[in-house]
Design goal:
Length: 373
Amino acid sequence: MERTTLNVAVIGCGNISRIYLKNLSGVFGGVKVVKCCDIDPQKADKGAQTAGAKAVYDPEEVFNDPDVDLVLNLTTPGSHYEICRRALEAGKHAYTEKPLSLTFAQGKELVELAGKKGLYLGCAPDTFLGSGLQTAIKAVNDGLIGRPVAGCAFMMCPGHESWHPSPEFYYDVGGGPMLDMGPYYMTALVRLLGKAESVTAFASKAYEERTITSQPKFGQKIPVKVYTHNAGVIKFANGALVTVVMSFDVIKHRMPNIEIYGTEGTLLVPDPNTFSGKVVLSTRENRDGAELEQVSGYVDNCRGIGVAETALAIRENRLSNASAALGLHVLEIMEAFTRSADELRPVELTTTPPPMIPLDWTADAGKLKTLAK
Ligand SMILES: NC(=O)c1ccc[n+]([C@@H]2O[C@H](COP(=O)([O-])OP(=O)(O)OC[C@H]3O[C@@H](n4cnc5c(N)ncnc54)[C@H](O)[C@@H]3O)[C@@H](O)[C@H]2O)c1
């Protein structure tokens, strides 16, 4: 008899694994965490204890286990490509934290490999499945702002060396504000506005070296190998021009996270790194704006909802929402910011994001359902 629960093995039991393990072991159905793997045995043991799963210390044990259906890749970005590739080659579905890979070429290879093998490959973020962004997406789709013509997206902060215990990776190849935080913003923009067509951008870095002021590495210097300030414009296929700034070089700012401007109104969109937040619509008649009613109960930290929805998609044999195909379009946009800056020219994009599969938001949190057609 076919199993209705998907057996999941987590590889990478660090910081972010805690919320995934909590939600996948308690909140969302359809999935069961059976193995927790980390090259750091203490972390694997701790994850396994939380999930009531078996601890393993070598990813090969996961790839070779016939009971594992899906590999949940929560390693750091430099390992995303390799772990996903090995999982797919071993015949497992996979779901990875963002970004899909460090380069568009690697991401494309993974999407093609999953397609060839007939396997699902999912990719974070899944915050766009939360109530805040779903409310904003519905408002745009329902025509509340008319025809979208422009927008802006700002993620600006001073960087992470004042609080993160090991902030080096933020300034190494594969780090920087664009690859670290861009996935949240680009995914939200793509779900709000559809396919992105081209990017024109400049980039810079304010410092060649940073000094760690957090413990335990207080005083250590970090060489900055990536751009830490990206400023540009994304042109969407629907004609909307969105101004984007992603920066680790700004002490404080007072700009919105995201705003979308349409012919009939302006939409204030909440922080795309969260599952909830106010959505405010301003129109010609009410320029001060009114808060829109949230469309679903997915307002808490629901990280893992993308994995649960992938499991549902596998059972229903349909496209999943937090898919690698979406992650690849996002990765292509992000890489285009750097390419455009390096080559001093607009960069045309080649990929198209898959459609959003509507979910039934009246279902209780944890009981995901596809919207009946
Ligand atoms: N920390 C956050 O707040 C946060 C939020 C959202 C997304 N993310 C994303 O989640 C991912 C993980 O971030 P984190 O903060 O949990 O990092 P982390 O460093 O705390 O944890 C990563 C874990 O992966 C393990 N690991 C690395 N390579 C491995 C390999 N090849 N095989 C097995 N284990 C391996 C490490 O030992 C470590 O325990 C990143 O892609 C990050 O962008 C993090």
